[in-house]
Every structure is written in structure tokens, then in C-alpha cells.
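CORE FACILITY INTAKE
Project code: CF-77B
Contact: R.S. (postdoc)
Sample description: multi-component assembly, three entities in total
Requested service: structural model of the whole complex
Turnaround: standard
Below are the sequence entries exactly as provided by the requester. Do not edit them.
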Amino acid sequence: MATRPFSALGCAMAGAIVLSACSAGSSTNDDPSGSDSDSTQEVTIGLFAEPASLDFTTTDGAAIPQALLYNVYETLLKVDSATGDVVPALASSYEVSEDRLTYTFQLVQDATFSNGAEFTAEDAVFSIDRVKSDDWTVSLKSAMDVVESAEATGEHELTVTLSQPDNSWLYAMTTGVGAMFDTEGVGDLATDPIGTGPYVFANWDRGTSITLERNEDYWGDAPFFGVVEFAYFEDPNAVNSAMLTGDIDVVGTVQAPESLAEFETDEFQIIEGTTNGEVVLSFNSDKAPFSDVRVRQAARYAIDHPTLLDTCWAGRGELIGSMVPPTDPWYEDRTGDYPFDLDKAKELLADSGNEGVAVRLRLPNLPYAVACGTVVESMLEDAGFEVTVDSLEFPATWLEEVFTAKDFDMSIVSHVEPRDMQAVFGDPDYYTTYGIPEVQALFDEANTGTEEEQTAKMKEAAALISKDAAADFLFLLPNLIVADPDITGLPENAVSTSFDLSALARE
Amino acid sequence: MMRLVMARLNPSLIVGGGLVLLVVLLALVSFVWTPHPPMKVLATQAYQRPNAEFWLGTDRFRRDVFTQIVLGSRTALFVGFVSVGVAALVGVPLGIFAAMSPTWLGHLVMRGNDIVLAFPALLLAIMFAALYGGSTQIAMVAIGIATVPSFARITRSGALGVLSTDFVMAARAAGRGPFAIATRHVLPNVVGLIIVQASVSFAIAILAEAALAYLGLGTPTGQPSWGRMLFEAQTTYRSAAYLVLIPGGAIALAVLGFNLLGDGLRDALDPKLARR
Amino acid sequence: MILQLLRRLGVLIASVAVSTVVVFGFMQVLPGNPARVALGVNASDAAVARMTEQYGLDRPLPVQYFEWIVGMLRLDPGIEYISKAPIGPQIGDRLLVTLWLVAAAMVLAVLIAVPVGTWMAMRHRHIDGVVLSGLSQVGVAVPAFLAGIVLISVFAVRLGWLPSGGWVVPASDPVGFVQRLILPSISLALVQGSVLARYVRSAVLDELHQDYLRTAQAKGLRPVQAVFRHTVRNAAVPVVTVLGLQLAGLLVGAVVIERVFVIPGLGSLLLDSVGQRELLTVQTVVMVLVVAVLVINFIVDALYVVIDPRLRVGGRA
């Protein structure tokens, strides 16, 4: 059974500001050198949390695929950011056998890597095998466990055989595990990424920015911008200032939605879409008091979700009742499972003999966690809990104390990987301490069944997780982007971990 | 000593003392009454300007600002007391010891002191926060340790002066042990210096806590703190400036108070330094 | 005098040596296995073990310690665990940035503090002296990052005269470099300048009451001449001490301004590396900072001996 890892939103936001002379305020200044040809079109995108390295095969964190996936590295299939559908990329078409064990991909013929090598089925086999080898150390690799073999059955034909039917494998191939590497191009992944994508890696100014340049030999449609800079900030205020002064053109991910009022003018456009980031208030049910389902239910009833969203995230985002975002096929609105009912919460708490119980809410020091933790504390105290909050350095200390040692009662973290319900709630050893046999059985059936069965079983699993109060689902993080009004092709819904540049253009 | 102080009242002392008294009063009052329930998210509007119900307005989490200011004075005083207390408890004996020891030992202690001095409070706080997570306690301990060298230095320097007086020579000749000399003669005579240093260090501690809160290494959410209020208000500075100016003003006033108090005490206690 | 200087140099070296042990020891106490943090959440124990071995994290401590010391002496402390980037050049670049910022701030601070402080001292009984004194007290009390945020708001966002932050290398864009240096150094200089001004005032006031000044006036020197000729040299001693302390404090203290203005300095490197558990980087950066402070103190002490003949002990001056 594949356990999917999580990567927290904090890593997903990365932006750097590079104020090189030519690109500063490119949208608001007259740019004397830029008006002649497309090749000098530049854009600067502000993000948070710089990646620690460029090698996502050994380093966790969503910041790396955010910059490199689909832009520098490509996969056989990708998720279209406008529609959310799985569409062809390096594989122009594919077929699935009757028994759903064999997938045959026809690969594009004219793709080349940035080091000049041609992309062939051999590279695809190499990439898939590499995931299963010791060279990949991130937990994402478990998605490949179901693959029995990969073979190059033609120069541009790839055949993959699974050990059992698995509905999630094809989707997994659109994420980082499906990235295609050159057999000769993996020597220095941490500082020299080599891919087939529309952009090539140009420069990494540590602590400041990552610069990509257009791949002139790209096999597909050439992207609009010749140079893209991801500028990384630590401080939401600094990003806002940079946007207001025109030092950057786009804020790729807004970390301070309460400040959006400043951008509600004609000089900016604000995009609000959905992400896969469910903000989960997790309960440690391995020990008291949350081992008692009534206490968990009391906590869920005590939280007034609309007020919480309004207060801590400026009302931006969607309310979800379970671990499924609206963009997934098995989504159901489960917000009615535990509507806000303070009396019921107090009653349940009293029934279980836990009035005034002391609990620890241990938060990672990420903006949404800290902001919403403040409100959660206040609401739970109204219901009779005694809450102590502390904020742990993320990722190191939070991973150590909450995730590994499970030394906590409640925590708040966002899980941004797509379709991660099984990974987060299917394993009793995971920090969410759920993974009861019933839900595991549902996941198994969903994976091996037909598409209809998958949808039905996943819905059941989501319902069970919600009714059992395995955790509370505060809200779904919004995808918030602020940009110059003439920029188009920005990803409205963050359906993958990539900040897809291929459709980006300026009118 | 009080007579000395009263005889030399000066503007710094009065204004500084007044401000400090104000902060202390706020803190004491907060134990019996706050305008609104402390740190509660109220189901009313966020970002309200000062009005009749919420005297200084509300913040982004719909909490009363005035209540937070009043409660925050507690944290500010707490941080100041603990850091200065730690620094004095360690630094003063160290300084006296260094002054009364044979020269080589005294120098050794002072060199060690210099090494600690090389670790500024912010650096220590960052290192400790990595170990234990950001919190008020961590901030206080880090600031306290970083302030020890100042106390040690000033105590030693004052003690050296006292040790060369006739009193002490006579006491030594009379056979008094070092401990007696330290407590009976040295300590009372350096108290003035220590108090002045304490006042200044108090101000520095409050500023340091604000800086740490800004970096996310200070008081965590849910507990009142002026530094924390600044941290939470910075992203909406342009649309809700009062949320930054009010706690910023509180910090500045408290720091100003302690600095003026220190200056005033220094002027009052040492006739040689009197300027008015 | 030379003997004294040599002795202080010896003390400096010994202090540095002790500090290395302290810093190294501290790093070992940090929780969070760096290999596990680097490899992420569900990394297999085997992978963690492999990385631990690869970076020699399981070797005996004295061995790791000596390797680190040797590396620093050779100016090549190694590469980072996760990003594989060489640490030496990174620290060098960041140190340079911080030095520019701190130097600019201190120069501005001195330019403000000396005239203002002297004025405050000479006019301490008049209303303008008192007002200035009050203002300097307020300047000391305002947190620097608050000043920074306000300056950005006014000069960058509202007026658009200057960029809101960032950094460029002076060689590639001198104008942009200067533009980006202005607001952050002013933010720092406002506070540091106020502190320094108060020390200047205090030092000058001390000197103004000295007898030799009366003697100089009796000899026929006008007050201003007297002040400059005699006071400055003596007042310089405590002021230089404070300058040294401020400089030392700013190397790390500027991290807050670095955050506000998005400047890639040493303080930011430290904060980020701690979060990413890049222990080698943290150790090395802390050592650089400690050494810098100790060296600055040494220089201040040495300057004492040079400036003030009363402090020269024994031997021939």
C-alpha cells in the first residue's frame, strides 16, 4: 500500500527578489531594451521559502518542484492547470491493457534535454528505475512501489507493468516521481538540473532568487517569457512592498491574505482559486483525552468554521468537511457533519468526564498555522478545553517532536500533495494516528477497483474519516495570486505542486 | 541613599520614574481587571478603530487592543525582571569575585566575560530558539545571559574602587575575611552602579524581546506581548497603522521610561556626575 | 606599549580558541538529526544512515571538531549537507553584504552623533540642548525595524523615490547599489546615532568640567577652540569603546533590518541555516561572528593604548 508523504505549505511558497537593473519594475517602467523582440521579455515572481537544494529526489519540500516541475523537468503526463485534467506531456498517448496491469506510452519524438541529449524510452526506463533505487530518498518514491518493471519496447515506446491494478499510479506520474531524467544528466542534481522542459536552469543566487531562461530547442510551444526569476522572500510585508513598488510583477502565493485590501485597485489583479492544501487540525488519538471519540467530536463542534476562516485567513479559502478538495472526483460537501454547536461540544466534553482538560496545541511556525491556532485556542477554551499553545520551528523541530515523537495533543498543518487522503489517514503510525482497519480496507478497494468503484469507495472513506472525527478540517487553503493586470496564463487553481510557467504571458 | 536621591531630583528621574510607574500600574491593574476578557476572539468586527466599546480598537483576530496593551505590560516587565535578575545574580558576584581575586584569576574571569560578550543577545536567542523553540522564556534566558558581562564589568570596576579605600584596608588589617568584606563593604557601595545598570539593561531587554518577536522567536501566539502585537500587525501596516503604532508606542515609552530613570538615578547618586 | 599589545593579542587568540569549543559543543546539543531533516519526513532509516555516514556525522566528536577547525583555517569549511553548495564563498558573500550595510550605518551614525552630541553638551543648559536630548532619548527607544517599515512605507511605496528592498552587487550596478543602501542604513543609523550621540554628549560634558579647560581659557583660547583641541581627544576614548560595541552588535543585530529590506546578509544566513539544520554552516557563521567581535574589541583596546597616554603602563611610552 502506497503511503504518500506530505509536504507542508510552508515549503511550497518560495520567492526571491532579484533587482537586477533591467528587470526592476518591468511592467511599470519604460523598458528601452525590451521592446524589440520576445526574447527579452522578463517576469519576476515573488514566492516564499527558498528551496534548500535543486534536487527533489533527495530533499523534501514543495519549493523545489514548485520552481522546477513542468518548467525545467517534464513528466510523461501532466495536470493542466486550467482544467485539472491529466493531459499528455512527454507521452503523446498511452494505452492501458484489459487487466489494467500494463501501460504502454508513445513518447514524443523530438524532445531533447538541455545538455543536448535526445529523450528516448531508455531515459524513461532509467528515470522510473531510479525512483525505485537508493538514489531517491524522499518518501514520494513509494508511489513507484507498485511498478514491477519498465521496458523500452521501441525507441519512443515505453511499457510499464504493475504488480497489481492501481488507480493512483497514473496520477502519481504527473507529480515529481514521474519526472524524466537523462541517463547522463544526473551527476549534479543539487546544483545543475537537466530536463526537457520549456525553461532551462540559468542561475541560483542563494538567499535571493532562482533564474530560468527559455529553452530555445524546446520540442513544444515556446513560452512567452524569455527570462523568469523566482524571487524568494521571508517576510510577507516585504513581498507586498515589492509588489506595490513594481519591483516584482507577480506574488505567486500570498501568505498574508489580510493585506490583500491594498491590491484591490486597477493597478493589480487578484486571483483566488483552490489548492490541494487541506488545513488539518490533527488529534493525537493514541492517548487521552483524544483517544475518546467524544472529546474529538466536542472539538469539532466547538469550532465555528466560517468565523475562523474570516478571522484568521481573511475569509479566503473554502470550507471542507473532510480531506477532499472540490477538484477531486470523489468530493462531497461534508461541512454539515459537524456544524458549529457550542452547547453540544460542552455536553460531549462533560459526558466524557473531560471538562477543563488540559491539551497542548503545538503549531509549526507557519503563518496560517499560527494565525488559525490563535482562533482555535479561543474557540476551544469557550467549550471547556484548557489549551496551551506553542510554536515550533518548522520543519526541523516540528518534525522531531510532533511528527516523529508524537509528543502533542493537537497540531495544525496543511497537506498540499494532491490526493493525499490515503497517505495522511490510512496509516496508524502516521502522526494523525488514524488508519483503522475499516478505512484501510476502503482504500485498498478504491485502488484496485474500477473508476466508478474508486470514486464510491473514496467517498465512503472520506465520510468515515469525517464522522469518526479523526481530525478537524479547518479549511482549504486558497490559491492567492496578485499580479500586474496584463499578465495572463497564471494558474488559478494550484492543482499540482508546480508553478506552471508554460502558459504565462503578458498582453 | 533615598535621602541622596530625593535631594537630587532631576527631570530625567521624574519623567522616567513616572513612565515606569505607569507601566507597573498597568501591570498590577491587569491582575484584577481588564476591559475585555483577555485574548478572546470576540464575534464582532476585526480592525475596528478606537471607539466607545473598544477603547483602542480591535486587531485582526477581533481581540481588544487595549486589553492586550494592559496585559502586555505584564510580559514586558516580566521579561525585564527575569533577564536583569539573571544577569545581576550571576554578574554581580562574578564581578566582585574578579575584583577580589589575585590578579591572574581576575583577568581570567574577565577574559571569560569578554567571550560571553562576544555572543550578542540576538545570536544567543537564535541558537536557543533552535533548541527549544521560540518562547518568552527562551528570550529571557538568552537576553539574561547576554547581559551578564555588563553587570560583571561594572561591578568589578566599582568594586576595585571600593577595595582601595581606607575602610577596606582597615578591615583587612583587622582580619576580616573576604566574604565579610565583600558583603559589608563592597556590595553596599556598588549598589548604586548596579541599579543604574539594571535600569538601562531593563530597557534593552524590552527592545530585544520586541526584535525577537519580529523574527518569530519571541512570545508565541495566544500570550499577550507588545512585541507579538507588532509582529501580527506588520502585514496590514498601511491600512491599519494604529495596530503598529500603538504597541510600538508602548514599547518606546517603556524603554524611554527606563532609560530616563537610569539617567536620573545616575545623576542623583553620583555628585561628580551631576549636570544640572 | 608593544608588550601590552602582544599580550592582548595572545588573549585574543586564546579567546577565539575557547569560543570554537563552546560553539561546537552547542551544535552537538541541537535536537533534530540533520540527515533526517534533510531527507524529509518518511525517509527510510537506511537512507538516513547512509547520509549520516556520507557526511561523517557519526565519527568521534574530537575528529569532527579538528576537521572543522582545519577547514576554517584553510578558508574552506566544506559544503552544505542539503544544498551541496560550498559554504566558504556563501559566507564570504554574505559577510561582505553585512559589512557594507553596517559600515554605511555606522558612518551615518557617527556623522549624526558627533555634531549633535557635542551641540547637546555645549548647550545642555539651554532649551535647544534639552529638546535635542529628549529627541535622542526617543531615538534610542524606537525599535529599528519599526523605523524601517515606516521608511519603506513613505519613501518607497508612497513617494516611489527608492526601491523597497533587495540587493545588487556594487560592481554590476553602482546606482542601484547606492539606492538600496540608503533606507536600511538610515533605519539603523537613526537608532545607533541616537545612542552614540548620548555617549558623545556625556563624554564631552565630562571634559567640559575639567580643570585643564579652564586653564586653556585662562591662557586665552576661545571656548570652541578649547573644546576641539583638548576635549575631542579625551572624549574619544569612551566613544570609541561604544562604537566598537555597536559595530559588534550590529553584525548580528542587522538581521532584523535584513529581513525588512530583503538583504542577503550574514544574519539571514544564520537564521535560515538554523532552520534547515545546516549545522556546519551555522557553526561556521557563529564562529565568524564571534571572531569578528573579539577582533573588534581587540582593536578598540589597542586604540585605547594609542589614544590615551594615561593608559600606557610601564616601559617607555
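Facility notes:
- The first helix of chain A runs from residue 9 to 12.
- The CA atoms of residues 295 and 353 of chain A lie 9 Å apart.
Invoice: internal transfer
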